[in-house]
């Protein structure tokens, strides 16, 4: 009996070391012992420092289970894995591949609690560094102070992507790689202004980077001496709630609509088509993100944030911070200071933007 | 006579090609001809495209005079060459040296007209790219829109250092390398807060980056749930105008003074010493820039913006944009997007900061 207990306990340590954190109840079933017996084993193993118990799971201490001795492993904690983040992941993979590193993905579904949990889970599993896009307050674009305090205490080198830490908070000491969404939006608005548009509507989702996009729109119109563009929010994501408001601004004289993002722009195309409004002859339309903009039935002029480059540079940087950079892709000249890198989106002009329609002659207004 | 005219004209072309732009009047003196004769020569030479005349100077057209075929030349247009910019220049030199490039310096004395003139002069002389610190509005930290329009039209790759272009303006499409002065100021304020200081005065110069320093101070105190620090401006640079105001805040209960910049901090040390106030026992003092902070009689805790790294990376980047990068110091992995890089200053803790003095017992207040 004494020998069997010892064997079982050694097996528990082996399982968590080789397979990572285990659910305690399932582990009891697997070992064919009662929950009480397993709890006693775990209490003993935790007391001698062989494992760690947390929230009903058994976690390894000591040697990481997912990272080999030569291959650094980077955890990637993103709000989702599709649409925009697909590009981030592609760039991250390229950098990891070039450095012989491994990537592990955790998805947070835009929930701050979940992203902290994912980060801690990956650290427990032995990742050498993290690349994260934590979820800010969508109204302000800033992370919440309590969230910053927790993120600043993660125990491995961490680089944020597509997120701005408050300059006055502790996360400002973490490296960031961002698309400069304010500049991107301004470039888009300037394109419309240079075509001759003066009355522009902005149709916007509510997302983590919407405040920066809005800020860029306001700055560019102020810079051009125009009134602020009229801003219409999408409402419930994926809904047609904004449809009537957009059509009304066009009736009132708007000649161009800036849409953040592409997904919403493809909806707006339908709204306009259904209302018999031709793109771009009657209304110019410009998209943002450039994930699906080129595939719309009227290929959309759009701003293309450098998603792949953001993902690539974030992984290169976190590898350098981990000391795991062996590839020449990581510049040996990068110094020690915390880096906040912003990369400016590119404008891709396609078929959805042109010079504004002639304004109706004043006599037409009364017909 | 005809032959002598031809010879003289060939000599004029040679002089401007070899020595760069020439003042027309001095050129006439040098050639021993009258102003009228020289003007006729210049009119002829300009009409056949051998030289260009502008604002009383004669400029070369054609082959650059300062750049050899293999050595790219970078113009460095800075407001001054001493104090802070000494570090920028040192970093720029290192990067240029590593790439076999040449640097040419132009100083603007913080005058926007002069910096545009310096930039255009260097371009005329054949520089392949520019690194500039244009002079913003000291009250806002932003470049003036008309100035941005001109800077955005410079005809060679240009990288700004220590300057932020408005996201809504045309210069946002230029690369920038900056110290994150807002984050640096916040790190300094947090150091004081962590020591236990609650009543903090900020003593500030009026300079191109002062608005960002102020912003960081306000953000950090808001983040810590404190009232805004009291901000005292220096007044006339180099004066003692702020002295009485600073001493008054200390009498009123301030236990720490954040000083932007070092030069002003060394003055403040004298003010406190003369008033019999001991640093750091009675008042903690923290400097900014870390150029001379370590040499003060009480060695100052100070924020150190990564001046050398800013200069180095700006030159590396402009060389990459010129296509003149041959050194491995320029990462081949840098992509094509415009980059805005912010590097976070480091805190160097020395002897001028400590825990706050005991507050006077309430009974003491009435003595």
Structure description:
2 copies of one chain form a homodimer. With 367 residues, chain A is an alpha/beta fold. Chain A folds into 3 domains: 59 residues, Winged helix-like DNA-binding domain superfamily/Winged helix DNA-binding domain (Arc Repressor Mutant, subunit A), CATH 1.10.10.10; 138 residues, Rossmann fold; 144 residues, Response regulator (Rossmann fold, 3-Layer(aba) Sandwich). Chain A is built from 11 helices and 15 strands. Chain A has a 6-stranded parallel beta sheet. A 6-stranded mixed beta sheet of chain A has the order 10-9-11-12-13-15, with helices on both faces. In chain A, α2 crosses α3 and α7 packs across α8. Chain A is elongated, with a radius of gyration of 26 Å. In chain A, 49% of the residues are buried. β14 of chain A pairs antiparallel with β14 of chain B, so a sheet runs across the interface. Chains A, B: This is Substrate-binding domain-containing protein. Chains A, B: InterPro entries: DeoR_HTH, LacI/GalR-like_sensor, Peripla_BP_I, Tscrpt_reg_HTH_DeoR_CS, WH-like_DNA-bd_sf, WH_DNA-bd_sf. Chains A, B: Keywords: DNA-binding, Transcription, Transcription regulation. Chains A, B: Pfam families: HTH_DeoR, Peripla_BP_3.
Layout of helices and strands, plus pairs?
The structure is a homodimer of 367-residue chains.
Chain A: H1 2-19, E1 22-23, H2 24-31, H3 35-47, E2 51-54, E3 57-60, E4 73-78, H4 84-99, E5 102-107, H5 112-124, E6 129-132, H6 145-151, E7 158-161, E8 175-179, H7 181-195, E9 200-204, H8 210-223, E10 230-233, H9 243-251, E11 256-260, H10 262-274, E12 284-288, E13 301-304, H11 307-322, E14 339-343, E15 346-348
Parallel strand pairs in A: 4-5, 4-6, 6-7, 7-8, 8-14, 9-10, 9-11, 11-12, 12-13
Antiparallel strand pairs in A: 1-3, 2-3, 13-15
């Amino acid at each position: 009996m004494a020998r069997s207990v010892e064997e079982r306990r050694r097996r528990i340590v082996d399982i968590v070391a080789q397979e990572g954190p285990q659910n305690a109840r399932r582990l009891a079933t697997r070992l064919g012992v009662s929950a009480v017996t397993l709890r006693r084993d775990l209490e003993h193993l935790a007391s001698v420092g062989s494992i760690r118990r947390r929230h009903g799971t058994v976690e390894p201490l000591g040697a990481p289970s997912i990272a080999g001795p030569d291959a650094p492993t980077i955890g990637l904690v993103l709000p989702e894995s599709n649409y925009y983040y697909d590009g981030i992941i592609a760039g991250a993979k390229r950098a990891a591949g070039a450095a012989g590193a491994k990537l592990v993905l955790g998805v947070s579904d835009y929930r701050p609690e979940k992203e902290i949990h994912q980060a801690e889970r990956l650290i427990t599993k032995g990742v050498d560094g993290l690349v994260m896009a934590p979820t800010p307050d969508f109204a302000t674009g800033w992370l919440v102070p309590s969230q910053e305090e927790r993120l600043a205490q993660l125990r491995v080198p961490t680089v944020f992507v597509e997120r701005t830490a408050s300059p006055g908070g502790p996360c400002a000491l973490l490296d960031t790689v961002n698309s400069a969404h304010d500049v991107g939006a301004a470039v888009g608005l300037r394109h419309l202004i240079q075509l001759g548009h003066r009355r522009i509507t902005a149709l916007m989702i509510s997302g983590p980077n919407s405040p920066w996009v809005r800020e860029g729109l306001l700055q560019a119109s102020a810079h051009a001496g125009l009134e602020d563009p009229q801003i219409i929010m999408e409402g419930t994501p994926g809904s047609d709630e904004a449809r009537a408001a957009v059509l009304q601004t066009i009736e009132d004289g708007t000649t161009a609509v800036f849409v953040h993002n592409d997904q919403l722009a493809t909806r707006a195309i339908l709204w306009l088509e259904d209302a018999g409004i031709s793109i771009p002859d009657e209304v110019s339309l410009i998209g943002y993100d450039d994930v699906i903009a080129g595939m719309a039935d009227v290929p959309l002029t759009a701003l293309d944030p450098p998603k792949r480059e953001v993902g690539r540079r974030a992984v290169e940087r976190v590898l350098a911070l981990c000391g795991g950079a062996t590839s020449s892709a990581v510049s040996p000249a990068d110094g020690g200071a915390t880096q906040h890198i912003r990369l400016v989106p590119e404008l891709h002009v396609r078929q959805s933007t042109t010079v504004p329609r002639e304004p109706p002659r004043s006599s037409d207004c009364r017909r």
